[in-house]
Amino acid sequence: MFDARLRPLIDVPLNAIARTLSGTGITPNFITGVGFFLGLLAAGCLVLKLDYAALVFILGSRFMDGLDGAVARHAAPRSRHPNAKSQESDLGGYYDIVSDFLFYSGIILAFAIGRPEHALMAAFLIFCFVGTGSSFLAYAIIAAKQGRMDGDAQGKKSFFYLTGITEGSETILVLCLICIFPASFNMIAAIFGALCLMTTMGRVLQARRDFG
């Protein structure tokens, strides 16, 4: 919901860093891997109930998630390195998507392992994540098959980007809230899970209108 509004603010620092990294040999896939590793560290911290350490690693992981795309899209005319070139690839986009969904579900799983009393609501939230993720990717597949073009409101993507109530920005916020207010996990999970279900339903209805 807020991704399109935040994108212009986020792109400025990301593009500045991308200009510095472009041509240095640091690849987008390497950055994706670093981001995923930071996500694993965040999960480990949650298992050990080191919530504020987990928060730092979550923010670092999501920063890398934004940076990999900026570096991939950085082309020679905007670079201080004459031999720099765009490194966008379908494989890179695939890695990015897979690591994102493993990260989001993994953080919730780790929280449940560290606090089994919240396991039921954690399972509910992961179920809701599956709904938003599957409705998102299924729409993208059909849209690509039909040759539909996406706008750049959320930034240039490796796939057709369908908006909803719960997007990346809202999900990151919820993960941060879980780290800051772990005792309120059940309430946070219930509210955000309901919003995820609303997003899923909205996307199903959108698909019915567009593909029916």
From TrEMBL:
Kindly indicate whether the keyword Transmembrane helix belongs to this entry.
Answer: yes
Signal peptide limits: none
Keyword Nucleotide-binding applies: no
Q: Gene3D superfamilies annotated for this entry?
A: 1.20.120.1760
Question: Domain of life here?
Answer: Bacteria
Alphabetical UniProt keywords:
Membrane, Transmembrane, Transmembrane helix
Q: Where are the transmembrane segments?
A: 30-59, 94-113, 119-139
In its UniProt entry, what is this protein called?
A: CDP-alcohol phosphatidyltransferase family protein
Record organism: Thalassospira indica
